[in-house]
Amino acid sequence: MVTGGINFSIYSAAATDCTLVLFERGAEAPFVEIPFPDEFRVGNVYSMIVFELDYERLEYGYRMSGPWNPEAGHRFNPDIILSDPYAKVIGGRDTWMAPPNWDNVYPYRSRLAFEDFDWEHDHPLETPIEDLIVYEMHVRGFTQHPSSGVRNRGTFSAMRAKIPYLKELGVNCVELLPIYEFDEWEGNRTSPLTGEPLVNYWGYSTVNFFSPKAGYAATGRFGMQVDELKTLIKELHKNGIEVLLDVVFNHTAEGDHRGHTISFRGVDNKTYYMLTPEGYYFNFSGTGNTLNCNHPVVRNMVLDCLRYWAAEYHIDGFRFDLAAILGRAQDGSPLANPPLLESLAYDPILAKCKLIAEAWDAGGLYQVGSFPAYGRWAEWNGKFRDDARQFLKGDENKVGAMMERVTGSPDLYSQRGPTASINFITCHDGFTLYDLTAYNEKHNEANGENNQDGGNDNDSWNCGWEGPTADESINFLRHKQLKNALAMLLVSQGVPMLLMGDEVGRTQKGNNNTYCQDNELNWFNWDDLKTNADLFNFAKSLVHFRRQHPVLRSHLHFRHQDYVGSGYPDVSFHGTRAWQPDSSAGARAFAFMLCGKHAKQGIVQDNILYIAFNMYWDALDFELPGLPEDQDWHVFANTALAAPDDVHAPGTELHLDNQSSFLVGPRSVVILVAK
User: Fold this and answer.
1) How confident is residue 324, by pLDDT bands cut at 50, 70 and 90?
2) Sequence-ordered list of residues with C-beta below 8 angstroms from that of 142, at least 6 positions apart, any chain
3) Domain 129-551, CATH 3.20.20.80 — does that match?
4) C-alpha to C-alpha distance for 636 and 295, rounded to whole angstroms
5) Residue 527 backbone dihedrals phi, psi, to 5 degrees
6) Could you state a single Gene Ontology molecular function term (predicted)?
7) pLDDT tens figures, 190-215
8) Strands 45-51, 89-91: parallel, antiparallel or unpaired by DSSP?
């Protein structure tokens, strides 16, 4: 906005004419259409100031004229009103799942945002990345279940009411699945099992990159989603919780040549998308199109977008979906030095933001451990997920790999340090942690794709029975395996990421691809807090244990040496005999010890910790390393025991009678503290 008016600007390299289309909010027809005079075009940018508009009631769009020549990459159609790629608010779909008007001449309407929010001195928290404990979550799914007991379920406002829960759990960072504008009605079908609508629930199909989703705001129908989201972020920051956004700069909701023209395709198809020589869409995303991120114009849009979220919403960092695509050239080939990734790494406004890559794409490019990092990028460590799952269920030949994973994957990140590794065992895509212990096979029939969707390489084990069971021994084993997995995650170097609900045994009933399910398969059932209270207490205790012990959060790789004169190396590995690890193919158990005097490379003092993993089906007697004369081993956690003896509150660890050895139960984890 400028004094007394609004400056409307839009880029197109190939359009021949542009018309500004203005609506009163919600009106079926525009009240005026204003062609851009030729003298109002500078280079490839159309720009015009319009005065005396009621900007609070205004909706705007564009008609772009130009060639219709798909073989050459051009798909202009002046009959379609287009959203502004830079719009800060999108109207027209203001309430979640409100039936759309399919005859609407302009369904996704650009609106103005007003930067008058009172942040009350808030700013991004800039928590050191090694100190983060990330909680991946879906805004709607977190509170939509009736058991949440909050007002305005499924919204930013409702999430605010659950901040005390996040604090009790102890996480200090939330990673939000896409919260910018998408269309939940996209691909609308019905479930063959329930007859319920199947929707675009996860939101990985962007309509606009700059605008928060109105359907996630209790005030969205009033156009107040910007303020509601900012209020949530401000409250999270007040409680010491960072906010990461899951961003999807690899494709858009327009799909392939059969999809809807919403914005980018009609503005400048050849600029915004990767196209084959025949004018069709490259599909490295698996969803129909691929954003042309290393075109300078698109690269600038991505930078502008992230700067906007960082500056105007105080976002602490970003996780990039299918980020390997961001390193592809305009012809789809991988680049050795991708300009977009380099620009993001060195951007001055984003300098304190966390940048996290999902280092693969649907076109087969897999870059875990080799993603172009420029000293800035961290990665979702898919190898941690795979190795931990396989070790958990007792696969052979995994001890050596797990030794790398628990020490921050130096085999992958030798030059970047352990904080390059975002460790996870589960995420939104795949089985929940409980389902890893309850299902050998995926059960995705409710998705209406004949169980053909979703991955088949789940590395899961049902503990002897497929699905729910009343067998107490199986249920005890499953809970033990859940605790084992949580322990593996939270005692490993790197940055741990928990999936929403894993701390209370949330299940998706064996569905490992719930992208289309807006129901209890995806919603957090708050009754699980009571049903699985032992899991929550164990998870909570582990999170707080990690936060209290800096030796678990190194920002540099271990040297396997004693460089502070403590008498112990910073890290040492052990087997059933102290100081003698066994990483042979048949081994399924090992232990490691961390010397607290090396914590933060000797800057901070901490306890000595000893962690034993026994994924063998029989108990094993572990010889314990000797301690200084003034210290004894104390038990923090022992997953072989039933609650409440499975874990002790940090600082109240139980003194161990036998200081020379510990019988670690079958498929169990033990964590000891020297005090």
Assistant:
1) confident
2) 148, 158, 159, 162, 500, 524
3) yes
4) 53
5) -65, -20
6) amylo-alpha-1,6-glucosidase activity
7) 989 888 899 999 999 999 999 999 99
8) unpaired
Q: In 3D, which of 481, 492, 499 has the Cα closest to residue 401? A: 492
Active-site residue identified among 358, 379, 459, 570? 358
Q: Tally Cβ neighbours within 10 Å of residue 627.
A: 18
Q: What is the pLDDT of residue 1?
A: 64
d(CA 497, CA 237): 19
Asked if residues 436 and 460 have their Cβ atoms less than 8 Å apart, the reply is yes
Residue whose token pair is 């939000």: 176
Amino acid at 116: D
CB 664 within 8 A of CB 620: yes
Neighbours of 625 (CB within 10 A): 18
Q: Phi/psi at 171 (nearest 5 deg)? A: -70, 150
Q: What is the DSSP string of 447-507?
A: GTSTT-SS-S------TTSSS----HHHHHHHHHHHHHHHHHHHTSSSEEEEETTGGGT--
**Nearest-CA neighbor of 324 among 355, 284, 295?**
284
Q: What is the largest CA-CA distance in the chain?
A: 87
φ/ψ of residue 372, rounded to 5: -60, 115
Whether 617 and 657 have beta carbons less than 8 Å apart is answered as no
pLDDT band of residue 186 (cuts 50, 70, 90) is confident
Residue 135 tokens, joined: 């909680």
> Is the omega angle on the peptide bond into residue 78 within 30 degrees of 0, that is, cis?
no
Phi-psi map region of 26: left, alpha, beta (phi>0 left; psi -120 to 50 alpha): left
What's the whole-number mean pLDDT along residues 564-588? 96
Query: Mean pLDDT in the chain?
Result: 95
Which among 485, 515, 519, 476 is positioned nearest to 503, based on CA atoms? 485
- Residues with Cβ within 8 Å of 571's Cβ and at least 6 positions away in sequence, in order, are 407, 558, 560, 592, 593, 594, 595
How many angstroms separate the CA atoms of 376 and 614, rounded? 36
Domain positions in the chain are 5-111, 129-551
The two structure tokens encoding residue 630 = 């003034």
Cα–Cα distance measured from residue 260 to residue 257, given in angstroms and rounded to the nearest whole number: 8
Q: Specify the CATH architecture of the domain 5-111.
A: Sandwich (2.60)
**What is the number of other CB atoms lying within 10 angstroms of the CB of residue 656?**
17
- 554 and 601 in contact (C-beta within 8 Å)? yes
Contact 654, 608 (CB under 8 A): no
Tell me which of 147-156, 469-478, 597-606 is least confident: 597-606
Query: What does the pLDDT read at residue 335?
Result: 84
Selection from 10, 9, 14, 11 nearest residue 270 by Cα: 14
3 state SS of 153: coil
Torsion of CA 205, 209, 210, 213, to 10 degrees: 10
- With beta carbons less than 8 A apart as the criterion, state whether 2 and 49 touch: yes
In the chain, the amino acid numbered 487 is A
CB-CB contact of 218 with 160 (8 Å): no
At 344-360, the pLDDT tens digits run 999 999 999 999 999 87
CB of 302 closer than 8 Å to CB of 296: no
Does residue 358 have an active-site annotation? yes
665 DSSP assignment: P
Please pick, among 130, 254, 321, 570, the residue that the annotation labels catalytic.
321
Structure tokens at 558: 């271990």
Tokens describing residue 92: 């027209």
Q: In the beta sheet, which residues pair with residue 137?
A: 176
